[in-house]
UniProtKB/TrEMBL annotation:
Protein name: PadR family transcriptional regulator
Family annotation (Gene3D superfamilies): Winged helix-like DNA-binding domain superfamily/Winged helix DNA-binding domain
Pfam families the record matches: PadR
Occurrences of domain Transcription regulator PadR N-terminal (ranges): 13-83
InterPro entries associated with the record: Metal_resp_DNA-bind_regulator, Tscrpt_reg_PadR_N, WH-like_DNA-bd_sf, WH_DNA-bd_sf
Amino acid sequence: MREFVRGAVRLHILHHAAQEEIHGAWMTRELAGHGYDISPGTLYPTLHRLEREGLLASEQRVVDGRTRRVYRATEKGRRALEEDREALRELAREVLGPEYPR
């Protein structure tokens, strides 16, 4: 189950980073809203790993009066997101049945 949660967190991060710039504190709150209790000690290494893999790019910026590292999905990250989405659709159809929408 732990690997499934790790994949779901990656999917959430790439999804939001493809839509807009994100930062760690915001992502922690967003994940908590979906029931994920992710500590900064887990989230930030995940963000850094995704950046090392070329899926995210970051820069420091002032957000709400605080200096934050903001992340956005790279083109490689957007392609990985689409691949992850298709794998999720296929898994959902397999597990939930053929009536699951495409």
